């Protein structure tokens, strides 16, 4: 599951209503067809901006990792030891991610964020979010927050690049308001930092919000 579409596109999948928990998008079919306009071919600029000043250590979980560009950016940090696991619903996306040269011991799994094995519970030091939150139906967001809290260790960190107002308002990607982010995350996560990234993919400048949070 990966959707960092940077502009309106005739190939953008139809959106879902907020009353739906089931994702109507066939991500596997999109990857098999090569119909992936969200794939820019490199890691999110906001992630690279963070890593330049705040290296990420330990075990790192990347939901909706798609072709794995963000996973490889995390795994290839110079002088930093991080075990990075990316998951995606689409076997084709996982296959694509694995086709790239290994960057530093990263691992990819075909898995559902809402149905993870018990071995993932309280396992990870970091969760790095870029393309999953905006891709799922908005009505599933509370389940998303629960799943993220479950995989993080107490005191674990959550870094997110939220897509606030996509150019495809019907989604996905689905936009989000700052108030909704606070309502979802504040009960279980402390907000440490918030900023607008200096760089972004074409069409996304000024549309993203970065947050660094810590699980209580």
Explain what this protein looks like in three dimensions.
The protein is of the alpha/beta class. The protein has one domain: Rossmann fold. The chain is built from six helices and seven strands. The protein has helices spanning 27-33, 45-53, 69-75, 91-98, 141-151, 178-185; strands spanning 58-63, 82-88, 107-110, 124-129, 152-163, 189-195, 208-215. It has a seven-stranded mixed beta sheet. Helix 3 (69-75) links the parallel strand 1 and strand 2 (82-88). It is globular and about 40 Å long. The model is unreliable at 1-21 (pLDDT under 50).
List its traits.
216 residues, alpha/beta, Rossmann fold, 7-stranded mixed β-sheet, 6 helices, disordered N terminus
Task: Please work out how many helical segments DSSP would assign.
Answer: 6
Per DSSP E runs of 2 or more residues, the count of β-strands stands at: 7
Helix-strand pattern: HHEHEHEEHEHEE
Could you name the CATH topology?
Rossmann fold
Task: Give the integer mean of the pLDDT values.
Answer: 89
Q: Which assembly state applies to the chains in this document? A: single chain
Per CATH, the superfamily is Vaccinia Virus protein VP39
What is the terminal-to-terminal distance? 27 Å
Quickly count the domains.
Answer: 1
Structural class: alpha/beta
Give me the side-by-side strand order of the main sheet: 3-2-1-4-5-7-6
Share in helix: 10-25%
Spans of 5+ residues with little confidence (pLDDT < 50)?
Answer: 1-21
- β-sheet strand percentage: 15-25%
Shape: globular
Main sheet overview: 7 strands, mixed
CATH class: Alpha Beta
Please give the CATH architecture.
3-Layer(aba) Sandwich
């Amino acid at each position: 599951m990966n959707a960092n579409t940077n502009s309106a596109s005739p190939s953008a999948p139809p959106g879902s209503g907020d009353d739906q928990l089931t994702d109507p998008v066939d991500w596997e079919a999109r990857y098999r067809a090569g119909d992936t306009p969200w794939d820019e071919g490199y890691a999110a600029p906001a992630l690279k901006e963070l890593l330049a000043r705040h290296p990420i250590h330990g075990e790192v979980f990347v939901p909706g990792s798609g072709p794995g560009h963000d996973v490889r950016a995390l795994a290839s940090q110079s002088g930093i030891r991080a075990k990075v696991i990316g998951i995606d619903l689409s076997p084709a996306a996982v296959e694509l991610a694995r086709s790239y040269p290994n960057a530093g011991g990263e691992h990819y799994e075909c898995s559902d964020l809402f149905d993870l094995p018990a071995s993932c519970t309280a396992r990870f030091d970091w969760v790095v979010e870029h393309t999953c939150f905006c891709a799922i139906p908005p009505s599933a967001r509370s389940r998303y927050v629960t799943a993220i809290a479950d995989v993080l260790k107490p005191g674990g960190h959550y870094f997110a690049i939220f897509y606030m107002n996509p150019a495809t308002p019907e989604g996905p990607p689905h936009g989000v308001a700052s108030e909704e982010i606070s309502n979802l995350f504040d009960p279980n996560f402390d907000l440490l930092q918030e900023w607008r990234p200096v760089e972004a993919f074409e069409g996304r400048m000024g549309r993203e919000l970065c947050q660094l949070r810590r699980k209580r």
